[in-house]
Amino acid sequence: MKVALIPCGVTEWRADDRLLGRxxxxxxxxxxxxxxxxxxMLRPLGLGRIFHSPxxxxxxxxxxxGRSLGVxxxxxxxxxxxxxxxxxxxxxxxxxxxxxxAHRELCEDPLNVSPPGGESLSAAASRVHSCLKKRVKPNGxxxxxxxxxxxxxxxxxxxxxxxxxxxxxxxxxxSSEPVVIDVxxxxxxxxxx
Length: 193
Hints:
By secondary structure, the chain is an alpha/beta fold. The chain has one domain (2-189): Phosphoglycerate mutase-like (Rossmann fold, 3-Layer(aba) Sandwich). The protein contains 9 helices and 5 strands, in the order βααβαβαααβααβα. The protein has helices at 12-15, 29-42, 56-69, 92-98, 100-108, 121-135, 150-159, 168-173, 186-189; strands spanning 2-7, 49-52, 73-75, 144-148, 179-182. Mean pLDDT is 90; it is low at 188-193.
């Protein structure tokens, strides 16, 4: 089974490399255009359904892509982005300056981090992994799309065996293009189970 992990369309905050967290943001014109470009890449996969985080940005991204492809979309609470608490809106430089030890931990062992006033990254990874175990079938025939914000996107890559947990922060920072993963039985062994 092929799974297309689709990042949320570009926002002004994302363009400035700010942590989005759960802040509600709209999909801008640049983000809409980027989604239309992704449609060309995603069309050959024959997606059967697109699941997405229930926030405004992921919903707008999924709806735009789903309509263009003629594919139904459905929000899933378990795909909600990590609550980064007081870190919402910070750039990496600001995070590094204000929370130096937490930033170092994010780079070295991200699933040990709990943002102040937010959600533990390990709890979020477990939530995303659990959701994917229910939705992704290694021998399924129909491709599936998942639209998520950066941390959840990176955690899904980890759960699907495409990257290791130590790279969650790095992958979250680089989640700007869809990633297609051919899923085998890795889901049952990989991720934050």
